[in-house]
Amino acid sequence: MTDLGGRREQVAAALASVEARIAEACRAAGRPREEITLIAVTKTYPASDVRILAELGVRDIGENRDQEAAPKAAECADLPLTWHFIGQLQTNKARSVVGYADVVHSVDRDRLVAALSREAVRAEREITCLVQVALDDTPGRGGARPADVPALADAVARAEGLRLGGVMAVAPLGEDPAKAFARLAEVARAVRADHPEATIVSAGMSGDLAEAIACGATHLRIGTALLGRRKPFVR
Ligand SMILES: *Cc1c(COP(=O)(O)O)cnc(C)c1O
After folding, report:
1. Ligand 1: residues within 6 Å at CB?
2. Could you tell me the distance, in angstroms and rounded to a whole number, from the CA of residue 155 to the centre of ligand 1?
3. Nearest protein CA to atom 13 of ligand 1, as residue
4. Which of 19, 123, 167, 205 has its CA 20 to 30 A from that of 221?
5. Which of 151, 145, 143, 150 is CA-nearest to residue 168?
6. How many Cβ atoms from other residues are within 10 Å of residue 184's Cβ?
7. How far apart are CA 62 and CA 37, in angstroms?
8. What is the dihedral of CA 160, 162, 163, 167, to 10 degrees?
9. Among the listed residues 188, 215, 223, 185, the one whose alpha carbon sits nearest the alpha carbon of residue 36
10. Which residue has the CA at smallest separation from atom 10 of ligand 1?
11. In Å, what is the CA distance from 185 to each residue of 85, 151, 226?
């Protein structure tokens, strides 16, 4: 067992409190807990924290920067984990990400679909891809405009080596997350109409997991509430 100065107890307590929030939100929404996958976002935290989370039963890990994620995933290769890449992704990082990620949440343009497909085929892997939806008009934070999502979903579904899993979004800062996630639910419904297998809705972070569950999220990406506040300037 890993223990670094009570870190395991600290993370265990945080996990229990996140689980209690998830249970309460599921109850309020009339949804079973089994519909929800908790992804622990471990960016800026060491591989030893990933190991603690795994010991506590967490099976899904999220990272947003390849430079950090690649060595961490390698260090944790002995653990039974599913790795989720959740950050903006440059096409020149596709080869590295495909080496460890099972799910890429941030597919937002055709060139990235092409790059991931090429690398997945080359690595003989199947990568589940989520189309990231921009819920605000602020450029630069990643995500496809809602109007462009159906065509992008079609491109993923057609691409060799890729499986269309569904959609992902981050609630815009300063907006009621319930309103933003309601728009995401609409986009998710439209994608499912064309691709019934694309059932994943990745939404909900430490501050808005209840709103996300109320709006149909299937995957939560939780960092701060599990591991503590990160240093500033790192999303
Ligand atoms: C960092 C990050 C999260 C986790 O956010 P918290 O507020 O720390 O829970 C979720 N999604 C994405 C895309 C992130 O970059």
Report:
1. 41, 43, 64, 86-87, 170, 205-207, 221-225, 235
2. 26
3. 86
4. 123
5. 143
6. 26
7. 12
8. -130
9. 215
10. 221
11. 21, 17, 26
pLDDT per 10-residue tile (average), the chain, 235 residues: 78 98 98 98 98 98 98 98 98 98 98 98 98 86 94 98 98 95 98 98 98 98 97 61
Task: Tell me which amino acid residue 70 is.
Answer: A
Instruction: Write out the E strands in 13-63.
Output: 37-41, 60-63
**CATH number of the structural domain 4-227:** 3.20.20.10
Work out which ligand 1 atom sits closest to the CA atom of 106. Answer: 13
The residue whose C-alpha atom lies closest to atom 12 belonging to ligand 1 is 86
* The two three-digit tokens of residue 133, written as one number: 């939806």
**Do 48 and 92 touch, CB atoms closer than 8 A?**
no
Indicate the residue type of 140.
G
- Residue 171 CA, ligand 1 centroid: distance in Å: 10
Reported pTM: 0.96
- Give burial (CB, 10 Å; 0-12/13-18/19+) of 7: middle
For every residue of 80-97, DSSP letters joined together read --EEEE-S---GGGHHHH
Kindly state the tokens that stand for 7: 């870190």
**Single-letter amino acid code for the residue at 220:** L
Are the beta carbons of 178 and 214 closer than 8 angstroms?
yes
The rounded distance, in Å, linking the Cα atoms of 184 and 135 is 7
Tell how far the Cα of 204 is from the centroid of ligand 1, in angstroms. Answer: 8
**Per-residue model confidence as pLDDT tens digits over 64-110:** 999 999 999 999 999 999 999 999 999 999 999 999 999 999 999 99
